[in-house]
């Protein structure tokens, strides 16, 4: 085991091709006529996909089972039962009319990696498990990370109290109807405390890798996020009879704030991003000077201190704009999520694996949320990104080149082999 | 008649007080429980108000009649039938839940001015007529100036073809139901060619007079107006995964355009105004970089050449912003109305009348549209403004101080006396 690279190129190529096929096969579950995929938590298409994945895991010789909330595990039991598991996977649910890759790629690549390892290398020292997490997107119910939240103990049945979909079905009712009974409400029945590491492979959902022409991204951290609502109030007046100098135009003020937000974010530089995604002019009419505007502010950074400092500086500047224009500004913080660092040692091993195969790689932060941010605080965690064409995700147009999907798959296989069959992980886990 | 000032202070004061009472009385027609007034064209409250005004005119000794479309005239016949009439008035219709003053004040002040002149000064040389124009706002039907449009020949029954209210009733059906039959469709049956001058008194609907502490405004011109729709297209992207430098943010671009519109308008200075009143972010969501924004642009000026030049310069600058940001910009011009100058001679006479009574006055443009802009091209026309508290109009909160209403009334009486009983108007009309 001195070399620690997974055997023959020929067999890896064969499993790589199968991985692509399985990814297409999974996309048939919840396929929309228009080309997208919809698998919302606890719906029929979701249930069929999880059942099919469980059967697929069994077919590959893994010990497969549902947990209490609907996560599906496939276990490749290690010879040394005292070593904690390496868990790999992603989520099976999609947004409404999403793509074939978000979540699904991570589930399929992990599944086929275990299939390959078992077939070619047999029993590992350390148990390796694939997980198809039941939910990450929060698309049906306004509560994200239901799957990874249960495994890590962040979510409980109590978290879901009162949470219902647009039709009024509660999350717990839908869960029961899909066959998952919260026997002992309030208990974290799906919580695991024997996970040594979590490794997730996922599409980037951005265009950094594409622009930088890299096949693999190694995630340094999942950004923290601040979500705010900003209300700007001025005077609603007749657009014809109110001279420019007598206006208290809420939209002109808000527009200056939007422009300043962008320029301050550009000046601060990456990985900080700041976005005004929604802006509503209250009772906006072409011939009325706007009296009230509401907009959202989304600030993300891998460094919480810098994120908070930016927020403070920005809000000070926005207040100055409001004061100068005699506008009233009101801000409400709706979300404050801390960044989650990925594990440096695992990340370095992923980059080394890329070098082995000649895959161009780079480190980058994840600006989107992922299940890995739930695992990060409880065990060493890492993420591998592959490029998203045009940065598009959550859309039927989501696409990743097969070569890139394969590069990611082989990188994952390499690291899982090192960690499951070699002794390298013992230093970390 | 050397002095040409209307007699006793006492009688003028008495009619001034009556004018305030009649204004309150007219506000009972279409009064809403919440305090506003709604008199939409050809509705029951509108019809009752016009009938009551006709009766009031007859009660004051005027020869009153409806015309074919529902304008109500009250005529004070002059001794010299070869002289063209001086017409004074405004509109009786309101917006939905409007105020007591917009339009109504002009009708009532004109009506009571004729009542005073007849009672105190008897028969004039030149015929003076009050008109309660049937419609100006375009609130029920998307077609404004139906009343003054018919008198001036700008509107015909053909103009109303296909025009219907929100319930699908066409303008011509509603007109017929109210008892006004377009016997000969296509004819301008209500057109007048014997009007020598039109003088309208109206609330300012802005706050210039209030801020400048003047009781009377003399309108120099009714501004021309350009209405445009601007669409800005960029790339809709994930707010977390798209670095600031890789964005084509349609909202940030549009915001820069809004700020530039305001600063260019401020630099140009009055009477130009430019307003972005409506701005919609297409599918705006807090965590998505906006891909498309649509906003309106309203540009007004008393000088058409300067208005058009501003439009051209502004659009060039907006295109430069779009180009620099790699955004697509599309503009559509929905309206291009020329400014209408008010008559200098009449305006000077109005200012002189103000000086006679010691009413503080100033010349100013009208940024809002008025019936006078229909009369302007066919006969010497003028407008007298009184202050609007807080610049508010089209609202139950619309208010003008009684002292200011009286100042306007007395100014109007003075000018009508000079024009109807004196020879001064002969130089102009």
Automatic annotation (TrEMBL), chains A, B:
<dbReference type="Pfam" id="PF07687">
    <property type="entry name" value="M20_dimer"/>
</dbReference>
<keyword id="KW-0378">Hydrolase</keyword>
<dbReference type="InterPro" id="IPR011650">
    <property type="entry name" value="Peptidase_M20_dimer"/>
</dbReference>
<dbReference type="Pfam" id="PF01546">
    <property type="entry name" value="Peptidase_M20"/>
</dbReference>
<feature type="domain" description="Peptidase M20 dimerisation">
    <location>
        <begin position="223"/>
        <end position="324"/>
    </location>
</feature>
<dbReference type="InterPro" id="IPR002933">
    <property type="entry name" value="Peptidase_M20"/>
</dbReference>
<comment type="similarity">
    <text>Belongs to the peptidase M20 family.</text>
</comment>
<dbReference type="InterPro" id="IPR010158">
    <property type="entry name" value="Amidase_Cbmase"/>
</dbReference>
<dbReference type="InterPro" id="IPR036264">
    <property type="entry name" value="Bact_exopeptidase_dim_dom"/>
</dbReference>
<protein>
    <submittedName>
        <fullName>Allantoate amidohydrolase</fullName>
    </submittedName>
</protein>
